[in-house]
Amino acid sequence: MRHLPAEWEPQQAVMLTWPHAGTDWAAQLEAVEAVYRRLVQLIIRDQAVLIVCRDEAHRRVIQAQLSELPNNNSPAVRIQFAVAPSNDTWARDHGPISVIDRATNARILIDFRFNGWGGKYPAELDDRITARVYAAASERLEPSPLVLEGGAIESDGAGSLLAVRRTLVDPKRNPGWSQAAIEAELRDRLGVERILWLEHGQLSGDDTDGHIDTLARFCDPQTLCYAASTNPKDSDHPALEQLAAELHALRQRNGAPYRLVALPQPAPIHDEDGQRLPAGYANFLITNGTVLVPVYDDPADAIACERLAACFPGRRIEPVDCRPLIRQGGSLHCITMQLAASAQ
C-alpha cells in the first residue's frame, strides 16, 4: 500500500528549478530571481530547499546571490544544489511526486512524464530533470508513462484526489489513455482510493487548461478553499461560479459536504499587450511551519491571507509578491515542489 501525503504533512525539502537567461524569464530575470531568493529565505526557516541549476556556472551565480541573504539562523546545509539542464522553471509540473510505502515507511519518488502542458511549449529537458537529479540517489525513483503535472492533482492525505478532468484525460497529454486507464495508473502509483473529477474552472491567462492548484485546494481532509468570483461582470465569473457549484456538490467519504472557504479574486492584471494574467490566491505553498501566499498589491491580498490563516492554525502566513511570476502564466505553487519526508 502507498500513501500520497497531503501538502501539510511533514516535508524534507522544497524543490526549485532556478530561472536563467535561456528561459522565458530572460527579459525580467532580475525581478523573478528576487522572488526566488525570497522563497529560499522563507523556506529554509522550516526545511531544506533543493535548487536545480542549469550547469555548474549557473550554480556559482546562484550561490553568490544566496550568500547575500540576511542571516536568518538557518543552517547552510538546508540549501542543496543539483545540476540539470532546463527549458523552464515550473518545478510543480516537472518535479517528482512523493509517495510513502506504508510497508517500509520509505519515500518513493514518482517520475511522471511532462510534455509542456500538451505540447504548448518545449519541455524535453524539463521532462528529464527528475531522472537526472536522482540518477545517483539511494532512494527509489519510479518512472510512469503517464503525463501528469503536479499542479493538476490535489491530495487530502486520506486517499482522495481532486483534479480537473481535462488536465489529465487529454489527447494532447495522454493519447490512447482512457479515463479508466488513467485512474488505474493513479491508484497504482499514488495509492489513492477515489478520484474527484471536476469539469469547470479556469483563470484567464492560464496555459495549463485549469490546473487544480489555481482553483481549489485541500486545507484539511474536510475543508476546501477555492477561487471565488463575486463580480458578474468579470469574464472569469461564469467558470468560477460553475466550479463553486461543483465543489458544493462534492461529498466526503462519510457523505457529508466539504467545508468550503471562498478566496477572493484580485482585480484583473494585464500584461503590456492587454492579455489578462492568471492571478489568484489558491496557488499557495504549505511548508512545515508556514503558508506562503501569493499576493499582487491588491486589497484582496489581506482578505485571502486572513482566510487562509483561519484554515491553517499554527502556521505562519507569509505573503509573497508574485506579480513577476504571473507574467509567465503561473504563480507561487507552480514554481515549487515539496518533497515529503519519509516516515523512517
UniProtKB/TrEMBL annotation:
It holds the Pfam family PAD_porph. InterPro entries: Peptidyl-Arg-deiminase_porph (IPR007466). Signal peptide: none annotated. SUPFAM superfamilies: Pentein. The lineage of its organism: Bacteria, Pseudomonadati, Pseudomonadota, Gammaproteobacteria, Chromatiales. GO terms for molecular function: agmatine deiminase activity; protein-arginine deiminase activity. This is Agmatine deiminase. One of its GO terms (biological process) is putrescine biosynthetic process.
